[in-house]
Amino acid sequence: MTTVLIVDDEPQILRALQINLHAHGYTVVPSPNGKAALLAAQTHAIDVVVLDLGLPDMDGLEVIAGLRGWTDVPIIVLSARHGSHDKVEALDAGADDYVTKPFGLDELLARLRAASRRAGTNTAEPLVETAEFTVDLANKRVTRAGEPVRMTPTEWSVLELLVRNPGRLVSQQQILTEVWGPAYAKEAHYLRVYMAQLRRKLERDPANPVHLLTEAGMGYRFAQ
Question: Where is the Response regulatory domain (predicted)?
């Protein structure tokens, strides 16, 4: 059975989709808000996400970003926002498809079948733990000794890229290109500054790191 996480704050829609999708052979995990959706995605083996953008606790784009931090599960946006700008934003954030409300059940079922066929398997663990700190990829949060570590968006982007490639050498050029953009591919001093900041925040001995490692002249490596 394909398991579908449905995220919508309208009880009638949530209930109707539960009944109809179950009747068509799907297992449904309902969620009324973004926070519950991110938790459900971590605790259930989800195959496809059907997501409304207008949620009471956070924008649907934030949910997409949270999911894309650790999983490539197909995401179908189901929204009353009809503007092309909204569609482009959702797709750029990582959504795979966009269906506007009101919608037909047959259309949604067809989109679900297509999403299930192209579903990937490249899913990382949402929680990455080391002896010093824990990285929550789904919620974009870092804790050390149980306390939250304040991260700038750039620090998070660098850390996330390394953590999602555990044990693998990630080149300076790749990090600079993905985090800052192609124009910064040779600006290695940017990266040295941010790696030093990350080590000060996360390593027990920043001068002798054991998790955020430098490969001289090549790049960096994350070790658990």
Answer: 3-116
